Amino acid sequence: xxxxxxxxxxxxxxxxxxxxxxxxxxxxxxxxxxxxxxxxxxxxxxxxxxxxxxxxxxxxxxxxxxxxxxxxxxxxxxxxxxxxxxxxxxxxxxxxxxxxxxxxxxxxxxxxxxxxxxxxxxxxxxxxxxxxxxxxxxxxxxxxxxxxxxxxxxxxxxxxxxxxxxxxxxxxxxxxxxxxxxxxxxxxxxxxxxxxxxxxxxxxxxxxxxxxxxxxxxxxxxxxxxxxxxxxxxxxxxxxxxxxxxxxxxxxxxxxxxxxxxxxxxxxxxxxxxxxxxxxxxxxxxxxxxxxxxxxxxxxxxxxxxxxxxxxxxxxxxxxxxxxxxxxxxxxxxxxxxxxxxxxxxxxxxxxxxxxxxxxxxxxxxxxxxxxxxxxxxxxxxxxxxxxxxxxxxxxxxxxxxxxxxxxxxxxxxxxxxxxxxxxxxxxxxxxxxxxxxxxxxxxxxxxxxxxxxxxxxxxxxxxxxxxxxxxxxxxxxxxxxxxxxxxxxxxxxxxxxxxxxxxxxxxxxxxxxxxxxxxxxxxxxxxxxxxxxxxxxxxxxxxxxxxxxxxxxxxxxxxxxxxxxxxxxxxxxxxxxxxxxxxxxxxxxxxxxxxxxxxxxxxxxxxxxxxxxxxxxxxxxxxxxxxxxxxxxxxxxxxxxxxxxxxxxxxxxxxxxxxxxxxxxxxxxxxxxxxxxxxxxxxxxxxx
Length: 689
What we know:
Layout: H1 3-11, H2 18-33, H3 37-52, H4 58-76, E1 106-108, H5 115-141, H6 146-165, H7 169-186, H8 194-215, E2 222-224, H9 229-237, H10 243-248, H11 278-297, H12 305-326, H13 329-332, H14 337-360, E3 362-364, H15 366-383, E4 387-392, E5 397-399, H16 400-421, H17 425-430, E6 437-446, E7 449-456, H18 463-472, H19 484-489, H20 512-521, E8 525-531, E9 535-543, E10 548-556, E11 559-564, E12 568-572, E13 579-582, E14 586-591, E15 594-600, H21 601-604, E16 618-624, E17 627-633, E18 635-643, E19 657-662, E20 668-672, H22 674-688
Parallel strand pairs: 4-6, 11-20, 15-17
Antiparallel strand pairs: 1-2, 3-5, 6-7, 7-9, 8-9, 10-11, 10-18, 12-16, 13-14, 14-15, 16-17, 19-20
């Protein structure tokens, strides 16, 4: 089997016929094993593409076949020895093996290394690898930005130098080869193509994998090289860009405009600035370069996580102690004015210390967003789609303990958008859309919370499809009285999926329920907005931190509760005309030209000794946006800062309860969950009406 016959068999290939596909893969593997050098590297990539064709939808299979055709053209266009020259020697060749089926290799970490030095090496190089990855993703979009290329060089060069210092030759050699390949672009010998970015990103993945293994190892211990390490190293050493690919490459001075068969462009721009003028591109490149330069020169001090956690716990205890002193009967009585002044001054210092400690635990979302951009890139290539991930607000900071918890639902939403939301290029053309689908990932502040939004311009969701699936599963009998929002929320039910085909990415109904559980575990909530044919939007609202809460203490009978001040709109003492009754059951408050449901907290928590006349107590309007309700309480006792404590497994998922806190007198007060209470109020109102 030579390359010409292999190309003919590709043209005649019916991928839906398993026997046909297996025969083609067998012939392709035979060609791979009988070649060497550059042709073998090309055929190696073709083997991976052929493997990816199994169990895929026809549209994706057609895209893979097109890529296989390009690869075979590259192999046949090589001036190296034709494969036909070696076909007669097949009987003497070693048995066929998969391209990556290499014996596992191990390396030994130097026994002379200091453990602290090794830890510093891992942390520092992880940072450089992350920075280089971000620069590569930007460089892929703006190949003319020399500063981005220099940043990539600095990253690999630093990794190479520090690896040589600790005698880690496997990382040093890999980083050196990447430098050598990229140098040809920097020096103007080669024109930028996607293959450069692919190799650099693959190399960073391998380096990160090695560093992760080193975290659990120590001096003198053995680590395992990632699968495919040797093949990647050889690919870098023998890398020669194909002339055909170079013809499709984008000149350095132009912006990244992909041809039909090329992969999508990836950029960081605001949602409202997608269509930019060419004159604005240079300013964006300059801003990106300045941002990277600032990151490079930023002065930082590393502190062990356990020490930082100890500091934060101590500050939390100090907040509790200050609250106890401030609410002591001697202080409250007002007899000791000088003591009151000193305690007030101490309280001010405690608040400043609290604000500083909260700042210490906050980290930007940049790293998380970068992972989503990379995830989108890899998934789009895998599925034969053209998808860009555009981020905004990655400088927003959240509690570092929440970063990993936020990443998980974002991953599921991105995967779902690429697999189900974004159409294939052919379908998008028929719908009058750009072939390049877009996913917008944004972050911003909203009333003391953080709001994360994932929006795609795909096909959106069909209400009837979801309803039919719900009826089929026995979840509902009819959806006549259900609002659109209630229908959309059904996609978060465990095992619920409308996917016609299960893929390795999604379709089993175990993703969206994970998203909702993760958001609710962060005391947040998720909303869905969709328009069929235009796209889908997921909005997640979560607190900035789960450690310390600014709250208002409210009294209900003999009990006290804490309402987060960020959720409070206003407290009013209602008059009779302000209260309306629906069906002689549900009570509504007229507030700012709208009707707000009333919840009597004494009924909610079954408190017998509370006020019952609405005009005798207070109504505290809480909620976000138009999602509001009015809580009936006896009185307001004042504002305070409390350290949020979990209530244990039995109380974690109680509707309307976000956690607990130690009050000034040492008793435990419940922190109310505004979004949970609003949802309950809405459900009660809908049931009544």
